Predict the 3D structure of the following.
Amino acid sequence: MLVIIDYGVGNVRSVTNAFRYIGSDITVSCDPAVIAAADGLILPGVGASGYAMEKVLPIASVITKQALAGKPLLGICVGFQLLFEESHEMGTHKCLGLIKGKVVPIPTDLGLTIPHMGWNYVKFADRMRLFDGLGDGRHFAFANSFHAEVNDSDTKVASAEYGISIAAGVEKGNIFGCQFHPEKSAADGLQVLKNFVRICREESK
């Protein structure tokens, strides 16, 4: 069983529908006991990461405990940003701290529209399990004004270009994240979710 963590912020319905479309056994919950019993966790989210962290705070220790114990965790969009140490959106906020780095604004002096919206090409790092079967890179759907500066030598980083190099995906052992929306990225996005389901199945054996 996989659990989508519903902490009151974000795109829970669309993520749930995508996992159910690929035939995954999915539960939506914020109950710590349900989270602890899951084979894998999905942390979605849209909007401001500072507000999202405020909402996730009551169950933050449960999420980090499960992730540090080796349970697969997938952060999506703002959920991806919460994986890092801190966010500088709407002030400075401590996040889950599972990956070293911080979330900062995409520079506004690049001559590009902010937020970063629509499809962009993502180049994968070598041997990222989350992107198995997708070659060296694919296009995915983005909607973000902030991006993560990764400062973690143990983390593999997939990147997109938007005036600067943006961390589009991360993988650190059992911890995974997508700045883009796999649930809105057609067949390639669904393949990312299928890969996460497979990883959860393998890790639970």
Observations:
- The radius of gyration is 15 Å.
- Residues 2-203 form a domain with the Rossmann fold fold (CATH 3.40.50.880).
- The first helix runs from residue 12 to 21.
